[in-house]
Amino acid sequence: MSLNPSAQISENSGSKQKSVQVGEVFEKMPVTSQHWKAGLALFFSFVIEAWEMMVIILASGSIGNEFKLDGAQIGSLIGSIFIGAIPGCIVWGELVDKLGRKKSMIYSLILYGIISFISSFSVNYDMLWWSRFFSGVVLSGLIVAAFPFFEELLPVRVRGKATVYLASGWPVGTLIAIGVTYFCSDLGWRWILGISSLAGFWFLVIAMLVPESPYWLAGKGRQSQAKEVLHRLSEGKMKEEMEDVELVVDNVKEGSFMEIFKGKFLRPTVLQIIINFCFSWGYWALSSWMPVLLAKKGLSTPQGLGFMAISAVFMFPGYMASSYLTGKFGRKKVMFTFVLMAAIGGFGFASSNSMAEMYIWNFILSFFSLGAWGVWDTWMGELYPTEIRGVSYSIGSSAQRLANAIAPSVIGALLAANSSFMSTVSFISVFLVITFIAVLFLREMEGEILH
């Protein structure tokens, strides 16, 4: 199929239709209340992802006491959800492209709620580890689908800004996890995990408020449904633009992992794998052991939770700044600068000699690292056409989860060997340095339509 936006003429029931890229429709689409509703629903799905990943870290002390676990076992337990997410992302990457974005998210949330609830009844370490593993497998539907899905519902001119705000669900999820842990600490870790599992009911909101991606529908040849979604999103303001038009997306092999390692896709695929692994390591290696690292500095458990809560609050202005700046200067310049500043903040945090210095450097680290994550979550989904956007995102997410799975155990081993606070955090920050170098070689996507 030729994809020249305005050149192809096809016969359909005896009438001539002009083929138009779905992305061109989004160039003219206004922002409506439908975008806000879908954004809210998908925003909280990312909150759930952060909540589930953080809650096991915060409850790990209580779990370790009950099951008599050492540091290596706790590190392995923290990493189990990410080990599960590695095959999970691969499986869901294909399902998201084959079943659709919406169905995949709904199934993922339902299965997550069930398995997470079962985990709260674990009678031993092995049962808890495996239930967390399978939580990672099923939660991967959210991980793979949320950002590409939201991007495929947004007008071009606000896509970068709005998707960065979606990423701000991470600190909200972190704060909820901290709050649930704090208020349920006397009840025990089973209650903490059980309450967290109730977030699976959010599938009802996704079902009601979020339409299927018109890119995906057009790629499946479901023209009338794609136009219905565009009509809904524009609140009827794009009717003329869709008359006598055939909506198209780039014609590549659907859901093929091999496709993203061929031709023009090879370079961005290699780069995004490097960025995903190193950036995730740089963030998660620090986050997963933050309570222990803070204890090395003499903070009590309540003080450590307070420090982490304040750190999460620091993330919000970082998201707002990167959201504004990415629309003004583009993805590459903003992400390079933010990751560079995060690396500086990491090294500064490592060398802190007082509580005041820890707060200052951690503000810099949290502000810039999470602002950069917001840009990256947007940018990663834009590098590929619709039919392989799911599998491309799944490969990147798998690289993230591999880092998430390995980092807690490696840092746990360093801490077990009595590695100092400074050397441990400095080692973590080196991965941020690799990240901002790799960013320089990716293609800018600000203002371009999705294909």
Verbal overview:
The protein is 74% helix and 3% strand. The protein has a 3-stranded mixed β-sheet. The protein has helices at residues 22-28, 33-67, 71-99, 101-119, 125-151, 156-167, 169-183, 189-197, 203-209, 214-219, 223-234, 266-288, 290-296, 301-329, 331-350, 355-382, 386-416, 421-439; strands at residues 9-12, 15-21, 245-248. It is mostly helical and 451 residues long. Helix 12 (266-288) runs parallel beside helix 17. Strand 1 and strand 2 form a beta hairpin.
**CATH topology call:** Growth Hormone, Chain: A
- Quickly name the level 1 CATH class: Mainly Alpha
Order of helices and strands: EEHHHHHHHHHHHEHHHHHHH
Count up the helices: 18
The CATH level-2 architecture is identified as Up-down Bundle
Q: Major sheet: size, sense and barrel closure?
A: 3 strands, mixed
- Main-sheet strand order equals 1-2-3
Write the CATH homologous superfamily: MFS general substrate transporter like domains
Structural class: mainly alpha
Q: What is the tally of beta strands?
A: 3
Distance between the termini: 14 Å
Helix content: over 70%
Please state the average pLDDT score: 84
**Percentage beta strand:** under 5%
Radius of gyration: 22 Å
Number of domains: 1
Q: Segments where pLDDT lies below 50 for 5+ residues? A: 1-15
